[in-house]
Write a structure and sequence with these properties.
With about 250 residues, this protein is mostly helical. It has a single domain (about 5-230), classed as TorD-like, CATH 1.10.3480. The chain has helices at about 10-25, 35-45, 50-65, 70-80, 95-100, 105-115, 130-150, 155-185, 190-210, 225-230. The longest helix has about 30 residues, at about 155-185. The chain is globular.
Length: about 250
């Protein structure tokens, strides 16, 4: 089991790169998408060899994407994730009593993390702040900042970033990705997305161990009728724009 201190700055940057790869792979597979994802897999040759589960999940996902075809990826993505697809890529679609206490409050809380680090929504192809890709990109940025703070010996900045990363993982990203992976398994996703979900689960689990957080895990989806009760509200009111990296 790895602790926070056992990962070098290089290993943190490696995990940040893998988070960005996952964020890219979980977007719609338009023309050129498969090639770019495969190129990113090849650039991430291997993770920290001490985490065998993560290394194996990475290799399985890489092989699945190497075998994938563009048309099959598009059909499967549409079946799983688009419109009223079988699986939601939004955190607030998964829930418990706390979720029922207020979806808008959850969205505002996620947006508050982004704002605190000077991030705003992208104007092109925007999405809600609780989308998986936005959360992965944000957490990736935190790991990059943490790695550079470590390398530069900037203890105050490192502590601020470390606390933010652990809090975001414990309150958001680490709570629901296991439920998302379970949903993808349940709906018999094709190999590229099934292995991508397993890689996501392995990486987030590794980060939970590293940060020693204890997120209250969510088990599944909220009822669809509950999700529809906010349909008359503007979901972006008072929220920042989806996460994009620093210029």
């Amino acid at each position: 089991m790895q602790t926070s201190a056992s990962l070098t700055a290089g290993a943190l940057l490696g995990r940040a790169a893998l988070l960005r790869l996952l964020a890219q792979a979980f977007t719609y597979p338009a023309d050129g998408h498969r090639y770019e994802v495969r190129r990113q897999f090849e650039r991430i040759a291997r993770m920290d060899g001490r985490d065998l589960e993560l290394c194996r999940a990475l290799e399985r996902a890489r092989r699945a994407w190497n075998r994938a075809a563009d048309s099959a990826l598009q059909e499967e993505y549409a079946r799983l994730f688009l419109a009223r697809g079988l699986v939601s890529l939004h955190e607030t679609a998964y829930g418990d009593g706390r979720r029922i206490a207020g979806r808008a409050a959850e969205l505002a809380d996620i947006g508050g993390f982004y704002t605190a680090f000077g991030l705003r929504m992208a104007e092109a192809d925007p999405d809600l702040p609780d989308h998986l890709c936005s959360e992965l990109e944000f957490y990736s940025l935190l790991l990059v900042k943490l790695a550079y703070a470590d390398g530069g010996g900037w203890s105050p900045k490192r502590e601020i970033t470390r606390r933010a990363a652990a809090k975001f993982l414990g309150q958001h990203l680490g709570r629901w990705t296991g439920a998302l992976t379970k949903e993808i398994r349940t709906h018999s996703a094709a190999s590229p997305y099934r292995e991508l979900a397993e890689l996501l689960d392995a990486l987030i689990s590794a980060e939970i161990r590293r940060t020693k957080t204890r997120p209250a895990l969510l088990n599944g989806r909220l009822p669809r009728d509950f999700m529809q009760q906010d349909a008359f509200l503007c979901p972006r009111e008072g929220l920042p724009e989806p996460v994009q990296g620093p210029a």
